Amino acid sequence: MKYIDDETRHELMLASPQFPARVLAHQGFDKARLHWHDGFEIIYARRGRASLTLNHRRHLVRQGEVKLIPPRCLHEVELLEDPARPDVAPQALSVTLAPEELIAIMPFVNRMQDALDYVAIERESGGAIAEYCDRIYLAITGGGPERYLTANALFFSLLARIFESSTGAGGAPGGTPSETPGETPGAPTGDAEAVRELSDARVIHKIWKYARTHYQEHLTVAMVAEQFGYSREHFSRMFKRYSNTTFKDYLTQVRLHVACDLLVNTESSVSNIRKRSGFANAQSFRNAFMDEFHCGPAEYRRHAWQGEA
Q1: pLDDT digits (tens, 9 = 90+) for 199-208
Q2: Phi and psi of 286, rounded to 5°?
Q3: How do residues 213-247 score in pLDDT, each as one tens digit?
């Protein structure tokens, strides 16, 4: 089964058939190569440990601990044995949010998850999240015709716990920033407004997919807006409202993720990688790395190969 796009490193398969997310119970020495996805991910080490490399910084998730991975962050995960019991295979649960599967009930899920303080949630609610993860693991591995019903109930309780753990910049519940004074995205609306929000959110995910497919091409906001039948102004407002970022910045992130993977895992020249990742010129390539990583692409590669990036 192919889960990772070889060029963009974007995770292709997110939702498990039984969940509005990708929920996997791991039993063995599994390893997920460098990748990223549009939803946040939870890694729970049930038995043994998990080695997590997030933006090329290594973290060790010990038995009984959880680690939250924000959306659109490059990472790789490897399950490790318990040093005290090296002959026993590790167990873990990974839960990756699939925003496109949740837009019917959470049209602003992208903005809501971007507003979360993942470090604070880990620190303050890590124990409760680990307990939910353990119960989900036991539910889906325990057999019985009702196991996925039980696991989904736990999944939504877990999701509510995470979103209730943080408050957005605008003070809106569930980490949802206010659009304008007096307006809270995700608040109850009329039927017509709810239908429009759902339709707009689905279009946004098509635009995300378009950017991940055409990132090597010269793309402007006006061109993509026309491709999807919108004026430049309406397109920009809609994308920002549902994505919590501009289209230009989202496209830059996609290109950066491609470039990072090529810099770390190939010996291609920096110039060739710049072209393959869609950056128009050397200056824009370097500026993007300086803004994101505070170093140029060549220095980023050197640090990564030395295990420092």
Answers
A1: 888 898 899 8
A2: -65, -40
A3: 999 999 999 999 999 999 999 999 999 998 888 99
Helices 282-293 and 297-305 sit at what angle, rounded to 10 degrees?
50
Element (H, E) at 26: strand 21-27
Q: What is the pLDDT of residue 205?
A: 84
Domain ranges of the chain: 21-175, 188-309
| Collapsed DSSP state (helix, strand, coil) of residue 73 | coil
Cα dist from 226 to 117, 208, 230, 250, whole Å? 35, 15, 6, 18
Residues in the chain: 309
Looking at 19-117, list the stretches that DSSP marks H as alpha helix, in order from N- to C-terminal side: 99-102, 109-114
Mark the ranges of the chain whose per-residue pLDDT is less than 70: 1-15, 56, 166-190, 307-309
First-to-last alpha carbon distance for the chain, in angstroms, is: 30
Of residues 309, 307, 278, the one with CA closest to residue 296: 309
The rounded distance, in Å, linking the Cα atoms of 204 and 260 is 25
Please give the Cα distance from 53 to 169 (Å, whole number): 28
Token pair of 179 as six digits: 């659009």
DSSP-derived pairing of the beta strands 91-97 and 66-69: unpaired
Give me the pLDDT at residue 190, please: 64
Task: Write the CATH number of the domain with boundaries 21-175.
Answer: 2.60.120.10
HSE of 58, CA atoms in CB hemisphere, 13 A: 9
Burial class (CB in 10 A: 0-12, 13-18, 19+), 232: middle
pLDDT of residue 173: 37
| pLDDT given at position 307 | 63
Q: Give the 3-state DSSP-derived string for 132-181, with helices as H, strands as E and coil as C.
A: HHHHHHHHHHCCCCCHHHHHHHHHHHHHHHHHHCCCCCCCCHHHCCCCEC
CATH superfamily of 188-309: Homeodomain-like (1.10.10.60)
